[in-house]
Amino acid sequence: MAVELGRFGVWHGPQHFGPELAAGIERAGYGTLWLGASPDTGLRDAEVLLAATNSIAVGTSIVNMWKSPVAEVAASYHRLEDEHPGRFLLGVGIGHRELNNDYRSPYEVIVRYLDELDDAKVPEDRRALAALGPKVVHLAGTRTAGALPYLTTPEHTKEARRILGGGVLLAPEQMVVLETDPEIARATARDRLSSYLQLSNYTKSFERLGFGPDDLAGGGSDRLVDALVLHGSAVDVAAGLRAHLEAGADHVAIQQLGKEGMDLLPGYEALATVLGI
Fold first, then answer.
1. Are 102 and 71 in contact (CB under 8 A)?
2. What is the pLDDT of residue 241?
3. I need a labelling partner for 165 at 20 to 30 A (CA). Which of 33, 128, 139, 260 fits?
4. CATH classification of 8-275 is 3.20.20.30, yes or no?
5. Is 263 a residue whose pLDDT tops 90?
């Protein structure tokens, strides 16, 4: 990898990621800040995170291909590379059929977008691809630094590693709730999962993992929720995060869930201590 990501990073949308949290996460020892929720083409939120920190990597997870013209994204990438050399990884992805009126063959759109990134001189080892299904996971390994699966399990990680082979980045995202009461934790998890259970790319991924219609109903079965969102003490959650590494991941992007407005840093500090980072 041209960008050093470390073993663990932190994933949040820009509404949760301010300069103070970014700096605190860097002090805690994490390797990467992942900027979610379809960052805009100017990548200004990524620029804020880079400016607020010293050496931690920043990646997008992900820039949406449907609404982000390659020329603009590439210009932003080159600006960030000039300002903060070696610290930025451009994560791109296809988005969701249900949220794009002009949705066409996703595979063809991805290939064309990567071709245009080639033409715009965004190097393969400085970009990564959101990938769930086998075909796109394989494409991520042949046309980018690797795959950024979102909302998956160690079982998915194991299969993705089999498809990618060695020497290719595999960096799954993992939601966590630091709460030892399982009912409270599951309620928090379901609150976050509800919208994803309506999106076909995720539901197909869950089906490939062995979950059926009953698991997707009513906000998600306990079995589905427990598989997708780690919960418990920092020690319990850390064991689940390590399971991704044991299954073949190079890096795990951690997304801590909780009440709106809560201070997220203490939870990340507690996990960092247990994980030894």
1. no
2. 98
3. 33
4. yes
5. yes
